[in-house]
C-alpha cells in the first residue's frame, strides 16, 4: 500500500494510545506458561502480537481473541513433541520463544519473513547449545532439538535485550538454578525492566546481581486471572513529537511509572524546548521554540526515527549517538532515516553508530517519494515529518505500520491529517 500525505499541520487534539506490543508479548508468554487460565485485555492489535499468539498456539496453548481481550489457556505441562513456529517479522516473538520452546522440551522449527532471517540470533543459540539444546542453523529457518538445562549463561548486554528476556522467561521453569552473566553494559534496559515487572506479576522470583541475574529453578507462573496491557510509549512518541513541533497534542492511556524506556520521549522533548503537561494518564506536548541537543540512544533505539524528525524542527544541530544497533532492525534505520530526511531537504550526516541532523527543512520541487524499507517506524516517522514540517510526500509500502500500529493512519486523519491511499 502506498499513501500520499498532505503537508498541512495537524489540529490540536488527543489520541487514545493503543496497548504496548512489548507488554503484550510478555503478558501473553507469561500467561501461556502459567498454571491457570487468564484473560489479557488489549486495546489495539498488531501483526507482531498475532505472531506471538500464533507461536504460543504452536507450543500447545489455546488462545481465543475476543473484541476486548484474549483468553489464554496455558501450555500443557507435557508439552513435548514437534512444532512449526511462524514468527512473521517479529524479532520479539523469535528471540523470546527460542529459549522457552527449548525449556519446554519442544522440538521446533522457527520460521520468519522480511528481514527477520537476517537479524542475529547466533549468540543466543550458541549459549543455548552449551546447555542441552541443538540448533541446525545460526539464523532462520532454524530447527531446535533437545531440552534446555539450567546453569550459567553468559551474554553481552549490548547486542539484544530480547536474548536476555527470552532466557528470563525460560530459566525459572527448569529444574536447577541458573544465572545470567553479562559481559558488557546493558542497552535497552527498559525492556528488561518490563520483563522483570511481568515476571514479578506472575509470581516468578529473579534476583539481580552486579553483572546480571540469578534465577531459581522449579518455579511456577502464578498469574492474575485478568491483566490489562500498558499503553505504548513507543507509539505515543510520534504524536508527542507532532505536538512539540506544531500546536498541542495529548496522548491518553499512558502509565507514568511504566518501565518502558521510551517514556524518555517526554524528557527529551522538554530538553529540546517543548512544553509538557501531565494529568493522570495523559501527556500533552505543546510547541515551543526548539533547539538541538545531544541524545544517547543506547537505551531508546526505537525512538531514533521520530527523534530525527524532532531534530529537523529544532535550531542548530542534533547528534544522536550510541545507535549502531539500529542497523540490524527491520531496516538499517540509520541509513533509511538519513536517506528519507535528505529527500525532504534536511541536512544529515550519517555516522557508523549515529546520525547528525541540522535543523531546517527545504524540500525540493516536484514529487517526493519515500521508500519505507518495509519498516513500520520509518513509515510513521515520515508521515509525522510530512504534516509537521510541511512536506507533501508519498510513502511506498506504508502498510508496514500493521506490524505495530494498524490504526496509525486513522488517528492521523482524526487529527486533520490528509491521507490518500494510492
Commentary on this structure:
This protein is α/β, with parallel strands linked by helices and 422 residues long. Helices cover 31% and strands 23% of the residues. It has twelve helices and 24 strands. The chain has a four-stranded mixed β-sheet. Helix 1 packs parallel to helix 6 and helix 7 packs parallel to helix 11. The longest helix has 14 residues. It is globular, with a radius of gyration of 21 Å. It starts with a strand and ends with a strand.
What topology, given as strand order, has the largest sheet?
Answer: 22-23-1-24
Q: What value does the average pLDDT take?
A: 96
Structural class label:
alpha/beta
Number of strands: 24
| Total of DSSP H or I helical runs spanning 4+ residues | 12
Report Rg.
Answer: 21 Å
Provide the helix percentage: 25-40%
Largest sheet: 4 strands, mixed
- How many angstroms separate the termini? 7 Å
User: What characteristic shape results from the CA principal axes?
Assistant: globular
SS strand fraction: 15-25%
Instruction: List low-pLDDT spans.
Output: none
Amino acid at each position: 500500500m502506498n499513501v500520499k500525505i498532505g503537508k498541512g499541520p495537524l489540529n490540536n487534539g488527543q489520541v487514545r494510545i493503543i496497548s504496548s506490543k512489548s507488554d503484550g508479548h510478555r503478558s501473553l508468554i507469561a500467561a501461556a506458561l502459567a498454571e491457570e487460565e487468564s484473560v489479557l485485555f488489549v486495546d489495539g492489535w498488531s501483526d507482531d502480537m498475532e505472531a506471538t499468539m500464533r507461536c504460543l498456539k504452536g507450543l500447545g496453548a489455546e488462545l481465543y481473541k475476543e473484541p476486548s481481550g484474549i483468553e489464554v489457556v496455558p501450555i500443557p505441562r507435557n508439552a513435548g513433541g514437534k512444532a512449526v513456529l511462524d514468527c512473521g517479522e517479529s524479532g520479539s516473538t523469535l528471540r523470546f520463544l527460542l529459549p522457552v520452546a527449548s525449556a519446554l522440551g519442544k522440538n521446533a522449527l522457527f520460521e520468519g519473513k522480511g528481514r527477520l532471517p537476517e537479524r542475529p540470533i547466533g549468540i543466543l543459540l550458541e549459549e543455548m547449545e552449551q546447555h542441552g539444546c541443538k540448533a541446525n542453523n545460526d539464523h532462520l529457518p532454524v530447527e531446535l532439538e533437545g531440552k534446555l538445562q539450567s546453569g550459567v549463561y553468559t551474554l553481552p548486554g549490548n547486542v539484544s535485550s530480547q536474548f536476555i528476556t527470552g532466557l528470563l522467561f525460560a530459566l525459572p521453569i527448569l529444574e536447577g538454578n541458573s544465572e545470567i552473566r553479562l559481559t558488557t553494559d546493558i542497552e535497552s534496559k527498559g525492556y528488561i525492566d518490563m520483563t522483570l515487572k511481568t515476571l514479578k506479576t506472575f509470581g516468578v522470583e529473579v534476583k539481580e546481581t552486579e553483572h546480571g541475574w540469578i534465577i531459581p529453578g522449579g518455579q511456577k507462573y502464578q498469574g492474575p486471572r485478568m491483566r490489562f496491557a500498558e499503553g505504548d510509549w513507543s507509539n505515543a512518541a510520534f504524536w508527542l513529537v507532532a505536538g512539540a513541533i506544531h500546536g498541542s497534542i495529548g496522548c491518553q492511556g499512558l502509565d507514568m511509572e511504566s518501565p518502558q524506556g521510551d517514556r524518555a520521549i517526554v524528557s527529551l522533548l522538554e530538553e529540546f524546548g517543548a512544553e509538557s503537561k501531565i494529568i493522570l494518564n495523559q501527556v500533552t506536548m505543546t510547541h515551543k521554540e526548539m533547539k538541538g541537543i545531544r541524545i544517547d540512544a543506547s537505551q531508546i533505539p526505537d525512538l531514533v526515527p521520530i527523534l530525527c524528525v524532532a531534530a529537523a524542527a529544532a535550531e542548530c544541530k542534533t547528534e544522536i549517538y550510541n545507535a549502531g544497533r539500529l542497523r540490524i532492525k527491520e531496516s538499517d534505520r540509520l541509513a533509511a532515516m538519513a536517506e528519507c530526511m535528505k529527500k525532504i531537504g534536511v541536512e544529515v550526516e550519517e555516522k557508523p553508530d549515529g546520525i547528525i541532523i541540522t535543523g531546517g527543512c527545504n524540500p525540493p520541487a516536484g514529487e517526493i517519494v519515500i521508500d519505507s524499507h518495509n519498516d513500520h517506524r520509518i513509515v510513521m516517522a515520515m508521515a509525522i515529518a510530512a504534516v509537521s514540517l510541511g512536506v507533501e510526500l508519498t510513502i511506498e509500502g506504508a502498510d508496514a505500520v500493521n506490524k505495530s500500529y494498524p490504526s496509525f493512519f486513522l488517528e492521523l486523519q482524526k487529527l486533520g491529517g490528509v491521507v490518500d491511499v494510492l
